[in-house]
Design goal:
Helix content: 10-25%
Strand content: 25-35%
Strand order of the largest sheet: 7-21-22-20-19-16-17-18
Structural class: alpha/beta
Shape: globular
Distance between the termini: 58 Å
Largest sheet: 8 strands, mixed
Number of helices: 9
Length: 432
């Protein structure tokens, strides 16, 4: 076994671990904070850095607080509960700034005030892993441990909405009572403003007694339950017979309907603030033609259409495009068009891409928008708002917009979409 070594924690890594150095080599220490001194033990070695865990904390950071969740440290769902929310968002802004400087070789002319919302019970979307462990005579229902081969043994989760997060023990007992307990692989959570839905992924057909137990649980807790026996198209309601999920964007008088497996922003309160900020940064007016890429269900497209003259939304998943059109019609929005297209491929000759636009909104996945920036934005588009879920890809694409397309990074800021995690959500404004 490796001997314990005393180290000083000098920084916080991009994934929320403390950073120390032993003989000049970087060591990432789970659960440690800058300014702390700890005895640590190396648990994994690699060529460029080592990983360690704290054996004894010798000097505590004045910012350290007691984690709210009893499972903190064993569950990979959170990594920053020992740091106050205000300090978390400061650390995330530092990560974004470092990525801009190191990867994009750019810096914003000004920093936007960080956006924050309720830091607890905010997760309205998520996927719980499920595993029956015969040695424990128990079904584990929760997120993965740091070692992703194992499911964390959770009784509660304070980042999930309370209707689910405070019922993990009950869900464990429910799954454990089923004859198909070894065939339940995961539970997908999706919550609208009026309904919470749980989709049970099962690897074999359920017998009548199992279906009855699930219905009884659904009725007792006023939760909708759906079943998924295969791919996304196999999802069917169990109880009630019809499940309606939607969320409202009050500022723009819009209701967005969605299906249980659809992508929606995890944090509902933050999503509303993010939409407001994006629309403000776009400085929309009735003469604007706007292109919204990676538009999903129209989360930004439809609010923008309330302010702009014409909006075009493009999304890779055809089912989401269909629902975007349905949402536009249901909300009486006629100045918007939606197209399905693979945005990781060259779409330069697509009819929608050859049109002229005044403004562009990008909300890409973690991989960023590099492929799109080979042919967009075209001449005449002088303002870009970029919503990012990964600071590294945003920094890379910022360098492209500034150095190749002649934009200035006017402003950038972080948004606490995932409090208590190291996930960095951000927004940036580019002007030409």
């Amino acid at each position: 076994m490796n001997p314990a070594t005393e180290v000083s924690i000098t920084d916080l890594s991009h994934d929320g671990r403390g950073v120390a150095h032993i003989d000049g080599k970087a060591v990432f220490v789970a659960g440690a904070l800058p300014g702390e001194v700890a005895c640590v033990r190396i648990v994994k070695r690699s060529r460029h850095f080592d990983e360690a865990k704290v054996e004894e904390l010798l000097q505590r950071s004045p910012e350290r607080i007691e984690p709210r969740c009893p499972h903190f440290g064993s569950c990979s769902g959170c990594s920053l509960q020992h740091l106050p929310p205000a300090a978390q968002i400061t650390a995330k802004q530092r990560v974004l700034a470092e990525n801009f400087e190191r990867i994009g070789k750019v810096a914003p002319l000004r920093w936007l005030e960080p956006l924050t919302a309720e830091p607890w019970g905010y997760r309205r979307k998520g996927r719980l892993s499920v595993k029956w462990v015969s040695k424990k005579d128990k079904a584990l229902v929760g997120f993965r441990e740091d070692n992703p081969r194992f499911v964390a043994d959770l009784s509660e989760c304070h980042t999930l909405l309370p209707a689910v997060g405070l019922r993990l023990a009950e869900l464990s007992r429910l799954v454990g009572s089923l004859t198909a307990r070894e065939q339940i692989a995961q539970i997908e959570i999706a919550a609208g403003d009026q309904c919470v839905a749980l989709t049970f992924r099962h690897l074999q057909p359920l017998v009548d007694s199992d279906r009855a137990a699930l219905v009884a649980f659904a009725k007792a807790h006023e939760i909708a339950i759906l079943l998924q026996s295969g791919g996304p198209d196999s999802v069917v309601p169990l109880w009630p017979e019809r499940v309606s999920l939607s969320f409202r964007i009050p500022e723009f008088d819009i209701d967005i309907a969605f299906q249980p497996l659809d992508f929606i922003q995890v944090n509902g309160g933050m999503n509303l603030r993010m939409i407001t900020r994006a629309v403000e940064l776009l400085e929309l007016n009735p003469s604007d033609r706007v292109l919204d890429l990676f538009c999903g269900l129209g989360n930004f497209t439809l609010p923008m259409a309330r302010r702009a003259g014409e909006v075009v939304g493009v999304e890779g998943e055809a089912a989401l495009v269909a629902r975007s059109r349905e949402n536009a019609q249901a909300n009486g929005i006629g100045n918007v068009e939606f197209f399905a297209a693979d945005l990781a491929a060259d779409q330069a000759d697509a009819p929608w891409a050859r049109r002229s636009y005044h403004k562009l909104l990008l909300d890409p996945p973690r991989s960023g928008a590099a492929a799109v920036l080979d042919y967009l934005p075209r001449k005449g588009c002088d303002l870009v708002v970029y919503v990012s879920c990964h600071p590294g890809s945003l920094a890379r694409d910022a360098g492209t917009l500034v150095n190749r397309h002649g934009f200035t990074l006017e402003a950038a800021g972080v948004m606490d979409m995932f409090p208590h995690t190291a996930h960095v959500e951000s927004i940036a404004l580019f002007k030409r």
